[in-house]
Design goal:
This protein is α+β, with helices and mostly antiparallel strands and 178 residues long. It has one domain. The protein has a 4-stranded antiparallel sheet with strand order 1-2-4-3. α1 runs antiparallel to α4. The protein is globular and about 40 Å long. The chain binds iron/sulfur cluster. The site of iron/sulfur cluster has 14 residues, from loops.
């Protein structure tokens, strides 16, 4: 499997994504992270990629136990010239998601048949979500939506999120591998 993992890292590099190997035990799932979705996110309930439309934290904890490794994926964007950070975030996370999804597909083709991407931010493939997802093949949820503490995970890898740095924005995803 080492060769297959290396090929995923090569592909990530080709896509301009930074990649860090994870053991699933590195991934902390916390109720307080999910609480921030329900009490504080302006998008709560609007997207089918996010709570309350996705699996619960407890369900995700069980799913996570069925994986042994994962790759933390980061694409950092220079946003110093952007006039509106929210508009930029929408555009940038969509582009990063497409690259990360391509990596998930590559992982599948390399034998990781349960490869599952947790995407950067809420899904914005459509202008608005319909009652039923318009593109279920693209529907993925973000790590925070299932309680993953990204700050702690980044710290474990010697990295930082810098929530209030609007000149550099990081799109962060996790690719679960099995
Ligand atoms: S693909 Fe479209 S309908 Fe489905 S979650 Fe994403 S934005 Fe919503």
């Amino acid at each position: 499997m080492k060769k297959e993992i290396q090929s995923l890292f090569d592909k990530a590099k080709e896509l301009n994504l930074s990649a860090f190997m994870l053991d699933v035990s590195d991934i902390d799932v916390e109720n307080r992270v999910r609480m921030k979705c329900a009490y504080g996110c302006r998008g709560y309930g609007k997207r089918l990629s996010c709570p309350p439309h996705i699996i619960s934290i407890d369900e995700f904890r069980k799913v996570l136990n069925e994986y042994s490794s994962a790759i933390l994926l980061i694409e950092e964007h220079d946003t110093s010239g952007e006039k509106g950070i929210l508009k930029a975030w929408s555009r940038l996370r969509k582009g990063s998601f497409h690259k990360m999804l391509e990596l998930e597909h590559t992982a599948f083709r390399h034998g990781f048949v349960y490869a599952q991407l947790l995407r950067p931010g809420a899904c914005n493939e459509c202008d608005t979500c319909a009652e039923q997802c318009n593109k279920p093949e693209m529907r993925r949820f973000p790590p925070e939506a299932v309680g993953i503490n990204l700050s702690i995970l980044m710290e474990k890898k010697g990295l930082e999120i810098e929530y209030c740095n609007f000149n550099r924005v990081k799109c962060i995803g996790i690719l679960l591998l099995e």
